[in-house]
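User: Here's a chain of 556 residues. Predict its fold as tokens.
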Amino acid sequence: MSLQLSVGEATATGPRAENQDALRIVTPTPALAASKGSLFALADGVSHCADGGLAARATLQALALDYYATPETWAVAQSLDRLLIAHNRWLQANGGGQPLLTTLTALVLRGRRFTLAHVGDCRAYRWHADTLELLTEDHVWEQPGMQHVLKRALGLDQHLVVDYLEGELHEGESFLLVCDGIWSVLGDHGIRSILQAEAEPTAACQALVSAAHLAGSQDNASALLVRIEQLPQSALADTLAQLDQWPLPPKLRAGQTFEGWQVESLLGESRQSLLYRVHDNQQRAWLLKTLPPSRHNDPQAGPALLQEEWFLKRVAGRHFAEAHPLPQRQHLYYVQREYRGQTLAEQLRLNGPLALPHWLEIAPRLLRALGMLHRRNILHRDIKPENLLWSEDGELRVLDLGLAYCPGLSRDEEHSLPGTPSYIAPEAFAGASPSAQQDLYAAGVSLYYLLTGHYPYGEIEAFQHPRFGQPTAASRYRPDLPTWLDDCLNRAVAANPAERFETAEEWLLLFERGEREAISSRPRPLLEREPLAVWRGLALLSLLANLVLLVLLMQG
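Assistant: Prediction complete.
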């Protein structure tokens, strides 16, 4: 069951020479509507700028194209804000010396929620059970005689500020977008009367436009009305629509064929999952992941497994495993490509701390992988050497998205603390919400551990309530570290999030700059790394020298 809508629109030039309003309705394919939603927008170009009509039309064109190009895992407001900030710069640069100015009110309906983006003096209303609710604020100056002068618009300022509003949808309600050419003459009372009289969306919009010009509006008049006819299922329903139809696979045996897959062996079995090695008909190796029978009645287990697959498909790239599309799936499982190689934990166990050249090859690849995840609004939450695979093809791959989290999509159990304790950021122990900085902290601890075989704050056990002071410098265990690299790791594992890197890209930039400038720099002198030990040693040597001298004098 998907979101069902009824939509109407109308616009008229009125006494003006040109219609500088623009309307846009985007109702995409069902799959895209489930992941990104349907888009409805109204823009009113400012007539006193270079070309208000162009500004309005270009804005809605960019909105319709760029919004659907953003990652599916981004929150709606995040997607809209990124593209509107970029388009604001375009408007300022393409007005032939004058900025192109337009207002914008845009509505995205996705699943059971709405997101409203607004800048300028168009208005958005919510109409339900004969109640008309204004959802937006007019961004105009309040001084007498300036009520129609915009203080906020696209193209007006370098720093764009957009109002966002999010909320739950209700069946039978409607959302109305109107320009100031309608609301300024009809008022809320006139709009309410027309909506009461006209139930059909297109007829209601035409009536609003006609009534505004009959009432003396000297401006263009435009209206867009969306009615919610039927809501979809709740919480990940579009992604997990077939979950109830998929039973767990039976216990698989080596040599059997299951849904076209040739089963080789059971690789892993835990309370959380079963992992099999399988081959396709071209003898390529894959990993089939499903749930153990003990989790059959766990209402969270099936959605979590399919959400893990969904995340994996949306971070497709060389730093992650390829997920199979499974067009004929009939049981609850997913399949990802198997890559031969060793995890970094295995390398550490077999060979000890990594050699610096190998480590310098791994670190930037891990940062690029995290950057890709975070740009898609996905947090890994279990970065550690066990989940980092150095493949035989020379790539570093991040494994296991079982604890991954997407803000606005994922849900955590109350008081849960996912991850491995020694890699969990200090603020997470204090109850902070998941963040990209926590992933970067875990990456810092992982890289520190791979270099030294130690943790910066010591090993943390489950259910322990750790205290974080100053981390031990990695150079204490590895005197061969350049100063810049020691400083990078100290910053990455700082207990205070404000002292850490904000993004993977920031860390990567500093890493690459330091590597270029100082990869061949000498190791830090002992005096810099352990000043107290050096001065104690010198004091002891001085004392011994004085004692020897005293003995010689006494003997003489």
